[in-house]
Specification:
By secondary structure, the chain is α/β, with parallel strands linked by helices. The chain has one domain: Alpha/Beta hydrolase fold, catalytic domain (Rossmann fold). The protein is about 40% helix and about 20% strand. The chain contains 7 helices and 8 strands. It has helices spanning about 40-50, 75-90, 100-110, 125-135, 150-155, 175-185, 210-225, and strands at about 1-10, 15-20, 30-35, 55-60, 115-120, 140-145, 165-170, 190-195. A hairpin with a 5-residue loop joins strand 1 and strand 2 (about 15-20). The longest helix has 18 residues, at about 210-225. The chain is globular. About 45% of the residues are buried.
Length: about 230
């Protein structure tokens, strides 16, 4: 259903993205932002899933500026490697990888001819939140357990589009207290907390929680249907 293509950022940087195309005319587009594990088989399957729902899905390789071809699994070693890559991306001069996400948004809009939403998981959730606040061409954003989203620095941002945020109450990376602070600061954001751990959406992780993942997906699809098409 999908294939890799090269996109070009405003600064001329060329990077790959996985593009999944629906049958028939897309009803809109969804940009899918990877975890710290790269555009791996799970992220490609997520993109395929959105394509199956009628959306053109674009999953940019957001680690390509620091290391090409990242495709990790979910072992302890993979976690360490992914965390190091995240730190390297965060250390890039502004706008860093947000320029690549903007290129993916623009590509998604051009290919689909419709509105564009964005969804991201783990570190991708943080990038999704930032995208909702500073990038152009989006109509909706859905961060899943975005590590860092509930820090004071990120809470201080203001989203420019409707946002639906998913968190897990057992997530030891994101405290419930910080989620409450986020909710209080952003009453305009629809926040849901599940009886699940970090990474509950990923069926390749030990923390996968099928009921939470299915409910979050139902809410996400309904949200995108409302705001994207």
């Amino acid at each position: 259903m999908g294939q890799s293509t090269n996109l070009t950022s405003a600064d001329g940087f060329v990077f790959p993205a996985y593009v999944a195309t629906p049958e028939g005319k897309p009803k809109g587009a969804i940009v899918v932002i990877q975890e710290i594990f790269g555009v791996n088989s799970h992220i490609r399957s997520v993109a395929d899933g959105y394509a199956a729902q009628g959306y053109l899905a674009v999953a940019p390789a957001t680690f390509h500026r620091v290391k090409p071809g990242v495709e990790l699994g979910y072992s302890g070693e993979d976690m360490q490697a992914g965390s190091a890559l995240k730190a390297a991306v965060e250390a890039l001069p502004a706008p860093g990888v947000l320029a690549d996400i903007q290129a993916a948004i623009d590509h998604a809009a051009e290919l689909s001819g419709g509105k564009v939403g964005i969804v991201g998981y783990c570190y991708g959730g943080l990038l999704t939140w930032r995208s909702a606040c500073v990038l152009k061409g989006l109509s909706a954003a859905v961060p899943y357990y975005g590590g860092g989203v509930t820090t004071p620095e990120e809470i201080a941002r203001t989203p420019q589009v409707p946002v639906l945020a998913h968190f897990g109450e057992k997530d030891h990376w994101i405290s419930l207290e910080s989620v409450e602070a986020f909710k209080k600061a952003h009453p305009e954001v629809e926040v849901h907390v599940y009886a699940a751990d970090h990474g509950f959406n990923c069926d390749q992780r030990g923390s996968y929680d099928a009921p939470a993942a299915q409910l979050a997906l139902q809410r996400t699809l309904s949200f995108f249907q409302q705001h994207v098409g």
